[in-house]
Amino acid sequence: MAKNGMRVGLDLGQSSIAAVQVKPGKQHNVLTHAAIRGLPEGLVFEGEVVDGDALASELKTLWKEGGFASKNIELGVANQKIVVRTMEFPQIDEKELRAAVEFQAQEHIPIPVDEAILDYKVLSTYAADDGSVKQRILLVAAQREMVRQFVSVAKKAGLVIGGIDLQAFALIRALAPKTSFIDQGGPADGVGAEVVALVNMGGGITNLVVAAAGVTQFTRVINLGAETLTQALILHRSIPFEEAESYRIQVGLTGEQPDQPGDLTPEIQQDIHRTFEQAFEPFSDELRRSIDYYHTQDHVGEITRLVLTGDGALTRNIAYCLSQGLHMPVEIGNPLREIGENKTKLTEVQLEWMAPRLAIAIGLALEDEG
Fold first, then answer.
1. What's the pLDDT tens digit per position in 231-273?
2. 272: closest CA among 302, 301, 249?
């Protein structure tokens, strides 16, 4: 953490980057800075760095325009070169546990151990049927070269990475229901708690994490995002990216919210709806398959609702359409619930509108209570 107590969370997406600066307080967290900057095509793809020099230049501009006081950042990552697995071990001390995890990791991950960065967190401790005490841990393995590219970009931008975390964990900090005081003596693995699917639909990828009482139960990265919709409209109507993005937000999918069509005719509105809905169907199907897969595994309970954030959450009527397709309640997530005071230059209205896109950045800037 920076000397002044400030924490800066940085979320590098495919079509935009977002950063927030939070000052933890005794009573509440204070949001001091927040900024989003659109990215040109080809800098980031499916959660990985493509053009490091250009991305570093965009980060410099974001820092200048956003007026961030700190250059120490917490970075969130999510892509197919990160593997998350659950493992079980006898209850042993931390040093022995780390050695055991590193020794057995290769049996659980497809990345050669000498090419990976390994980390883990203890999810729960429980009594096994034979009376012994076991630990359930979540192993995270990231390809070393992929991480090195992010570190290189930050260095070129004049930033220092204080920590790298899974975007899924940041989502849990920002959005997962907190354990109530009366439930704090209950099982540490989330048994009996509400099970919620947290979904961050970014530009190029979507993060799905299932959590109960703030404990990770399942996580997956889907290589589809909001740009799937935007690119479909660009191809169909031969319009610029910015115009297609505007239609995604103002017209979007068919649903409960009325369009904000400007000067569009009803026929054009219907054509835009159809184009977006055709492009949205594979995303909805993939998300449903992931949730169905979770329900086939040994889990703590059925998912009761889905909370949606990210670029995709700004798509008009997306929560309604997902709810219809998944047959469960879907809501747009608000990470500002973890913020007690807004000291940015943004109005409350501006900040509320940006909030879904800021979810991962806010989660990264929050201190981990675990």
1. 999 999 999 999 999 999 999 999 988 877 778 999 999 999 9
2. 249
d(CA 222, CA 204): 9
Alpha-carbon distances of 116 from 12, 28, 46, 94, 148, rounded to whole Å: 21, 37, 19, 21, 11
Q: Where are the beta strands (DSSP E) in the chain?
A: 7-12, 16-23, 30-38, 44-45, 48-49, 72-77, 82-90, 116-127, 133-143, 160-166, 195-201, 206-212, 215-222, 303-309, 330-332, 341-342
The model's pLDDT over 287-301, given as tens digits with 9 standing for 90+, comes to 999 999 999 987 788
Strand 72-77 and strand 133-143: the pairing is unpaired
CA angle 13, 60, 201 (to 5 degrees): 10
- Which pTM value belongs to this model? 0.91
Burial code of 291-303, b = ≥16 C-beta within 10 A, e = fewer? beebeeeebbeeb
Q: For residues 3 and 354, is the Cβ–Cβ distance under 8 A?
A: no
Give me the residue label for tokens 């961050």: 200
First to last CA, the chain: 16
What DSSP state is assigned to residue 189?
T
Summary count for the chain: helices (H), strands (E): 10, 16
d(CA 270, CA 272): 5
How far apart are alpha carbons 187 and 309 in whole angstroms? 28
Both structure tokens of 118: 């390994």
Angle at which helices 266-296 and 226-237 pack, to 10 degrees? 150
**Are 41 and 241 contacting, i.e. CB atoms less than 8 angstroms apart?**
yes
Sheet harboring 82-90: ordered strands across? 82-90, 133-143, 116-127
CATH 3.40.50.1370 fits domain 7-79+146-175+335-365 = no
Task: Give the Cα separation of 110 and 74 in Å (integer).
Answer: 27
